[in-house]
Design goal:
The protein is α+β, with helices and mostly antiparallel strands. About 30% of the residues lie in helices and about 15% in strands. Strand 7 and strand 8 form a beta hairpin.
Length: about 350
């Protein structure tokens, strides 16, 4: 198992306006939804979700700043301590292998009597409704793949990448566009890590074979660059940069999730929000009042560790510095910097548990 730095984040440096067709930075995606529009649409569905007042339906806005920080989430209005500033369902999520018998595969909520999939013998659900929702969203195709490769069970990170592809069939256009624009930082990976990702991409590609994936469930295009080995390498790189570690009520890691809007939050050693999970639903909860125009910031590291340890970890894992002078680059900075890299890959190319 490998740590995710409390869920490393990053967002691609893209121009505001150009569409995501062949001229986009990654070379694939929906042609009529640009990055700015995609995140704005998804943010409108997430921000202020816990508020009944329609005037508070969007407490946040996405901003882009010059310098290392790049994009971030900024408060539109005053947000009081204790409020949930962001509530987001995962685009895709997967339980760790040792947790599949304890939690519902769809909601990640514990249940004393889970219903097991009769075909794959892997996924378990808290109710028939949860099973039907998972089947429609992703598990119809995953079940085919798992039955075909039994008794082998891929690592969680491979399954998560495959679920991202299967979710493409039912996802909103803006969701897929936002996922495609998450930063991958491929150029900053070592050659060894790139080779590991290529091997993992081949495993994902093998898992997708014989299933429906892509934009059209009835006719997936094997030539689509998003689902080529190269495209899957970029998907895995995005996962390593942006995946969140989902925890239970006791803060024990139970799985991994992809949250496109949540990934926009930058790091600070003096954060104003903390991450909270209810099942696999992500909440950003304020731990102090946030003023209008102030950035929403979380911590990627254990704040009980020494500053030297935090600095070393963030530089090694995410390639940004919190040392003297680094935080002064941004006016009004609260200690945050744009995250810029992924997680360690101990044993990632083989079987096992993947990131933790």
């Amino acid at each position: 198992p490998v740590p995710c730095g409390e869920g490393g984040r990053g967002i691609a440096e893209v121009q505001e306006g150009p569409t995501m067709g062949s001229g986009s930075r990654d070379g694939y995606g929906d042609g009529d939804v640009d990055a700015a529009a995609a995140f704005s649409l998804e943010l409108a569905r997430c921000a202020g979700a816990g508020h009944s007042d329609d005037s508070q339906s969007s407490l946040l806005q996405v901003v882009r700043r010059e310098g290392a920080r790049g994009r971030g989430l900024v408060a539109r209005a005053r947000i009081a301590k204790g409020e949930d500033v962001l509530v987001e369902e995962p685009y895709a999520a997967v339980l760790f292998s040792e947790e599949v018998s304890r939690f519902c595969d769809f909601s990640f909520k514990p249940h004393k009597k889970l219903l097991r999939c009769a075909k794959s013998k892997v996924a378990r659900y808290a109710s028939r409704e949860a099973q039907a929702a998972a089947w429609k969203s992703y598990y119809r195709e995953e079940c085919k793949a798992l039955v075909r490769i039994q008794p082998h069970l891929p690592s969680p990170i491979v399954r998560l990448a495959a679920r991202m592809c299967w979710r493409r069939r039912t996802a909103r256009e803006s969701q897929w566009a936002a996922v495609c624009r998450l930063e991958n930082h491929w150029a900053k990976f070592s050659d060894r890590k790139k080779l590991l990702l290529a091997e993992m991409a081949n495993r994902v590609r093998a898992l997708l074979e014989g299933t429906d994936y892509g934009a059209a469930a009835s006719d997936p295009d094997p030539a689509d660059p998003a689902f080529s080995v190269k495209g899957l390498c970029m998907t895995l790189a995005r996962l390593l940069c942006n995946v969140h570690t989902i925890t239970d009520d006791e803060l024990k890691p139970i799985g991994l999730g992809v949250y496109p809007v949540g990934s926009l939050a930058n790091h600070s050693c003096t954060p104003n929000c903390v991450q909270v999970y209810q099942g696999n639903r992500l909440f950003y909860r304020c731990i102090r009042d946030i003023a209008p125009g102030e950035e929403v910031l979380i911590s990627y590291v254990d704040l009980c560790s020494l500053e030297s340890e935090r600095r070393d970890f963030l530089m090694k894992e995410y390639f940004f510095d919190i040392g003297a002078g680094a935080e002064a680059e941004e006016e009004g900075d609260h200690g945050g910097q744009e995250v810029a890299a992924g997680v360690r890959l101990y044993g990632a190319a083989g079987e096992g548990e993947g990131p933790k």
